[in-house]
Amino acid sequence: AQSVTQPDIHITVSEGASLELRCNYSYGATPYLFWYVQSPGQGLQLLLKYFSGDTLVQGIKGFEAEFKRSQSSFNLRKPSVHWSDAAEYFCAVGSNTGNQFYFGTGTSLTVIP
Amino acid sequence: GAGVSQTPSNKVTEKGKYVELRCDPISGHTALYWYRQSLGQGPEFLIYFQGTGAADDSGLPNDRFFAVRPEGSVSTLKIQRTERGDSAVYLCASSPSTGGFYRDTQYFGPGTRLTVL
Question: Which of these, B48, B33, B41, B37, lies nearest to B113 by C-alpha position?
Fold first, then answer.
C-alpha cells in the first residue's frame, strides 16, 4: 500500500535561516508527489508538484523540492525562511493504481525572529 | 475570482443527529473531492466526484456517510447518526481537469469544523 511519512512533527527555525522538511513515500512505481501548505484559517495551498523529468522542482514562495528515487524522498527546501512561512506543511502522493491520493501527517513550522 | 467555499464554517451537533456540509467548488471545475482531517493528522480522502457521479467513494468510512453532487457543481456531504468520532475538519477541494485525481492540482476550501457532543 502507498504511504507518506513526514518524520518531523514540529520544526523551529530562525527567520532568514534555511529550511528542509522531510518526506518519504512508499510506492511501487513512480509516484506523483506534492507539497501543500496550510496556514491558520486558510485552505491547503499547493506549493509544488513532481510528476516526471527534472528531479529538482521549483514552486511558489521560493520553495523547491528534490525527488530522490534511491531514497524514496521528496524533501522540501527554502534557502531563507520568512516569518510568514510559519504554517503546517503536508507532503502528498498520488497513485495511478486505484486512483488514490494520500497525505502525510504534516510538519508544523515555527519561525522565530 | 472566488475560491472553494464551504458552509457552515463550524457545526456543533449532538450524538445521533444528522448533519449536512456544503461545498461550492470553483466555477467550471469538474472534479470535486471531500477529505476529513482529524486533529494532528493529514487530510484523509473520503470521496471524489467527476461531474455528477462519484468516481471513487472508497474512503467513506461507513454507510452513515453519503455525498451528492446532483448538478455537477455544489456538493453536500451527509452524515447520519453522528458519533463523537466523526468530529473533525471536513475539507472540500475542486480541480479543473479530468486527468485523474492522483495528479490534478486540487484547490481547497477552508473546511467545516464538525464537533459532535
Answer: B37
